[in-house]
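Service request form, structural biology core

Requester: graduate student, group of Dr. S.
Request type: structure prediction, single chain
Budget code: on file
Notes: please return the result as structure tokens.

Sequence provided:
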Amino acid sequence: MEDQGLYTISFKGLSSGSHFYEWTIDGSFFALYKTSEISDAGIRVQLTLLKRSLFFELNFMLSGWAEVSCDRCLDPLKLEMESDAQMFVKFGDHEGEDESEDNDVIILPYVQDRLDVAQYLYEYAHLSLPIRRVHTDDANGQATCNAEMLIKLNEFLVNSN
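Core staff response, request fulfilled:
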């Protein structure tokens, strides 16, 4: 993805303590990623960065909605989402993820003075989606999926009886 700078946090001159960032990510954000399962969205991102002497603590809160394809009928499905995530940024000789059990620690080179969080926003949004994404059933227990697709699926249904 091309770095837009919009989701880049500069550490240079940042005072110790808490700093607050807020963005809204939508379909145009997810369109920048070829493998995105999210086709449209209205997600409010709140990031609280706590600068400490040796590391940064980043707390992400995502809330809003995302549109994905229904697993059953492939029609668009709008899902409400709300999640939070925490990440720690340390500085060291080698860039990458910490080799410890904690997957939420990244290591940046000492000379780096900024962090682009766009990739993390993309990942956290996708991780907040449910595993099974289907239209809900109505009061009669009937799926609200695309009726034509359900008929086609039933044609190919194999019964084990």
